[in-house]
Design a protein that fits this description.
This protein is of the alpha/beta class. It folds into 2 domains: 182 residues, Vaccinia Virus protein VP39 (Rossmann fold, 3-Layer(aba) Sandwich), CATH 3.40.50; 100 residues, Putative methyltransferase TM0872, insert domain (DNA polymerase, domain 1), CATH 1.10.150. 39% of the residues lie in helices and 15% in strands. It has 12 helices and 9 strands. It has a 7-stranded mixed beta sheet with strand order 3-2-1-4-5-9-8, with helices on both faces. Strands 6-7 form a two-stranded antiparallel ribbon. A hairpin with a 5-residue loop joins strand 6 and strand 7. Helix 6 crosses helix 9 and helix 10 packs parallel to helix 11. It is globular, with a radius of gyration of 20 Å. The relative contact order is 0.14.
Length: 298
């Protein structure tokens, strides 16, 4: 079983503008695809990789230039400092769920197979999707489905879940599908379930909050000229990344100096972002929604 096929591999690694003696960070190590390509371009440099999923550690290469940290990337700066690294020359993040996580049913990331409603990226975490569905207030659930899944009928979905869980807890994927399946638009069932599961996964793992925490830390750890390379897979993530690279904040609020010039910590390298071509999508269909954004610290 393939652990993961990295999206936009050449474009993202080229975007890092790797220097042979530089220090780089891969905050989403996963199957190691991006990290292996970075290591090929280093001579005396160093690569630090983060991954909160303990399963990813099996992919670590035996290379003296490489350091694997079993940590969430929200702890970027503190872990770098602990390892005596004050600054870096580039950081890459591939924000997608790995094939490994999708393809193991018991992880609960996919609606295509019945399994426990888990969805934890970090298996030592205490909050699962089942826990959220069985304990959250109806209003909070509706907000999760609306904000993170962009589901227009979020209130109805939450109402059905709260009603059903009163007699039978939400434990498995099929429990959830059986409860809300009637709310899926005709012939758009898969899209509906994908959005629903995306919303739960984001909530379980605090994905947007932790992404913002990590990005804010890049302002202090990236050297001038250092590159920030981010691959996102849905509009919520992409909006956060795009706004941050453009303005240095997550609201996209442009601040100007005395002369009317926009104040920003980055120079955008690919203004519209980069998406996979037809050839890549034919080989790796899961890359179809990927969008790569690259910025340079100024």
């Amino acid at each position: 079983m393939v652990y993961h096929i990295p999206a936009l591999l050449k474009e993202s690694i080229d975007g890092l503008n790797i220097q042979p003696d530089g220090v780089y960070v891969d905050v989403t190590f996963g199957g190691g695809g991006h990290s292996m390509e970075i290591l090929k371009r280093l001579i005396t440099g160093k690569l630090i990789a983060f991954d909160q999923d303990e399963d990813a550690a099996i992919n670590s290469p035996a290379d003296e230039k490489f350091l694997f940290l079993s940590q969430n990337f929200r702890f970027l700066k503190s872990n770098l400092m602990f390892n005596n690294i004050k600054s870096i020359d580039g950081l890459i993040a591939d924000l997608g769920v790995s094939f490994h996580q999708f393809d193991i049913p018991e992880r609960g990331f996919t609606f295509r197979q019945d399994a426990p409603l888990d969805m934890r990226m970090n298996k030592t975490g205490t909050v699962t999707a089942s826990h959220l569905l069985n304990t959250m207030d109806e209003r909070v659930l509706a907000d999760i489905f609306y904000r993170y899944g962009e589901l227009s009928n979020s209130r109805r979905i939450a109402r059905e879940i709260v009603s059903a869980r009163a007699s039978k807890p939400m434990v498995s994927v099929n429990d959830l599908i059986d409860t809300v399946g009637k709310l899926a638009p005709f012939r758009q069932e898969n899209k509906f379930y994908a959005k629903l599961f995306q919303a739960l996964r984001i909530a379980v793992n605090h994905e947007i909050d932790y992404l913002q925490e990590m990005l804010e830390q890049t302002l202090s750890v990236l050297n001038i000229g250092g590159r920030l390379v981010i691959i996102s897979y849905h509009s919520l993530e992409d909006r956060v990344v795009k706004n941050f690279m453009k303005t240095g904040n997550f609201e996209g609020e442009e601040k100007k100096d005395f002369y009317g010039n926009i104040k920003t910590p980055f120079r955008i390298i690919n203004k519209k972002g980069t998406t996979p071509d037809d050839e890549e999508i034919a080989i790796n269909n899961r890359a179809r929604s990927a969008r790569l954004r690259i910025a340079e610290k100024i």
